[in-house]
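Dear Dr. L.,

I hope this message finds you well. Following up on our conversation about the binding site, I have prepared a predicted three-dimensional model of the protein together with zinc ion. For your records, I am including the exact sequence and ligand specification that went into the calculation, followed by the structure tokens. Please feel free to forward this to your student if that is useful.
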Amino acid sequence: MDELTPWDPTRPGCGAGIRGNEGRWTHCDRDVVAAGTRRFHHTPRERWRTYACAQHQEWLDNPRPLAEADRDDLAWRQEQHDQATRGRPYMRVRPLPT
Ligand SMILES: [Zn+2]
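The resulting structure of the complex is given below.
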């Protein structure tokens, strides 16, 4: 993993991209152990809450163990993800307010 590895801060899980079948990018599906924030060079003013597994937590700006509110947020994200998958109305994960 390096600076060019895709990272999806809206995921209901680890945000890291990993190489899957035939070298295509897919999502890391390891258990989330840390919460933190990240900024991305293409949108430097946006700061995102995002999550990571043990292997990818060093990529968070300020990793910390999951708190109750993080578990609630992850559950909410999963609900929205499931709604979107079913073609139902859902809320998008947004950057943190500045
Ligand atoms: Zn990961």
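In brief: Helices lie at 68-85.

With kind regards,
A. P.
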